[in-house]
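--- STAGE predict ---
source: upstream dedup step, 1 unique chain passed
mode: sequence only
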Amino acid sequence: MPSLLSLRHYSHELLSHSHAHAQLVFGLNGQLDFEIAGCGSQVIRQTLAVVPPDTQHACGSRHGSQCLVLDIPSEQWLQQHLGGHADASRRLLDTPGALHLSPAQSQLVSWLAASPINDPVIAQQGAALLLASLANEHSARLETQCLPLAAIDAHIDQHAAHPLQVIDLARLAGLSAARFHARFLSETGHTPMEYVRSRRLHLGRHLLQNSLLAVGDIAARVGYTSQSAFTAALSRHFGLTPRALRQARE
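--- STAGE serialize ---
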């Protein structure tokens, strides 16, 4: 595992690899061409690249580039040094791409780059302060965006036969399970699991009316362990049995 903070010089030689830890690459001088998970970006002054764990990435600089690199040691380090900012930091570090620094964040990066970053106190506290600031800003941007309902619908449909939890859907929105639950209820008027049940039943009705699958097979495809449980849920939701729903198609 490399040092927590390090100054690195990049050249025209292309580097391509992945590593188990997350990494933040802050531009200081020059331009570093970066590709993360197949998406291209440029790291220059006042920008950074976020490299999630185990993500293939490549970089190179035609005219040379200097960067400050923050290698995240472990989950334990996040919890120990970020405290209440740890969850927001994880969400930031799980999202590949390029970000812009605020003036204050840019000043902190410059200060760290000019400091003795081999000093463990400076490295630990400086890295934690910088990461907490970035994570808070990332969370604030997510809060102003609408939930990705189309992606959530597609995920439910694709995994309808399997158990689904709120945390599975929250990851699609880049939110904690608790925050996602509150946002989802506010935006849709339903809890996430109410929404999942409703979508499963609508998918079940569609299969009843547009396929010749047996009712038990349809029940399994939309996540019900028994035909009787599926029938009871349909009756509560639509006021009709599977047979009546199929007849309504004719």
